[in-house]
Design a protein that fits this description.
This is Sec translocon accessory complex subunit YajC. The protein has 122 residues and is an alpha+beta fold. The protein is built from three helices and five strands.
Length: 122
Amino acid sequence: MLAFQLLAQDAAPAGESSILQRILENPLILPVGVVAIFYVTYFGPERRRRAEEAKMMSSMAKNDRVVTIGGIHGTIVSAAPDSETVTLKIDENGSTRIKVNRSAIVKIVGEPKNKPDNDSSD
């Protein structure tokens, strides 16, 4: 109760406004705030996604298992670092191969490093 009374006594006179009040009265605060929130929520994750995609594109190598945009699963047979295309083997025998753009590869499918044991000794 005493703290509230002290705060009430320290309030600015009615004719004067504090710096914070003058800043909040500015009509540009709301649009600038909306743009800032939009930038943080949209462009931040987009930049992160592009960086991850670029890292994946540069790390593609021979014998990596990949999935294309169209859902085709295959294994990379040849992938020159300076080429925009890679050759995929898409069947078990290795006789069917297709050439796709690097940008058409959605993800690299890998085997888990540590496979969990199915044996339960509970």
